[in-house]
Amino acid sequence: MPKHGKKYKEIIQKIDRQKRYSFTEALEISLSSSYAKFDETVDIAVKLGVDPRHADQMVRGTVVLPNGLGKDVKVLVFAKGEKEKEALEAGADFIADEETVEKIKNGWFGFDKAVATPDMMGTVGKLGRILGPRGLMPNAKTGTVTFELDKAVKELKAGKIDFRVEKAGIVHAPLGKASFGVEKLEVNANAFIARILALKPSTSKGTYVKSISVSTTMGPGIKVDPSILK
């Protein structure tokens, strides 16, 4: 078990651990309890009533958060010819040439997201063992393997996130920065939850959303009442 500091323990004592709050209340508590000297990220965790071991119960998708993530997302694009120009005009930070590929092989990761055109996947595939474990591998299911680079790059820069249910049935995602304030974070949270609900597998029986919690980088999880989704 991780050891928590004095401030964290003081915050825990002020929270009713048995209560389930509305999104507004949970975010207010989370933000008012923030004590870090940096602009913390606010995260959401949703426990789903699915068994990810079964392919037909895998919950995976993407969503563009209306208020973004509060960070400058660095996008690397694997493309050639006219598609290079399209990517740069859309706001891409890097175009992966041979030198860039070698830099990645040597440990360079100065980007947050990677996009590739289908005809470049032969090159990208050689980096699979490096990009895959870091969640940077372009994937058609998340819209990052596409010829529509203008759309893909702009969505990523605007705050598009991809998510996938973990083995324990939990989906984690960032909602933005603490400096956003409650209103903007709640809008992002509602967009994320709406997407989760839309992806409910037909084979999922019983309660789909079992629990929800929000937290800042350094703070405790504040439980949200899942019944508000009904």
Number of domains: 2
**Rg, Å, rounded:** 19 Å
Low-confidence stretches: none
Give the helices and strands as they follow along the chain: HHEEEHEHEHHHEEHEE
Strand portion: 15-25%
CATH topology name of the largest domain: Ribulose 1,5 Bisphosphate Carboxylase/Oxygenase
Largest sheet: 4 strands, antiparallel
CATH architecture type of the largest domain: 2-Layer Sandwich
The helix content, as a percent range, equals 25-40%
Number of helices: 8
Strands in their spatial order, largest beta sheet: 7-1-8-9
CATH-level-4 superfamily name of the largest domain = Ribosomal protein L1/L10, rRNA-binding domain
Q: What structural class do you assign from the helix and strand content?
A: alpha/beta
The CA-CA distance between the termini, in Å, is: 35 Å
Q: Find the count of extended strands (DSSP E, 2+ residues).
A: 9
- What is the averaged pLDDT score? 91
Name of the level-1 CATH class of the largest domain: Alpha Beta
Keywords: Repressor, Ribonucleoprotein, Ribosomal protein, RNA-binding, rRNA-binding, Translation regulation, tRNA-binding
Protein name: Large ribosomal subunit protein uL1
Family: Belongs to the universal ribosomal protein uL1 family.
GO molecular function, one term: tRNA binding
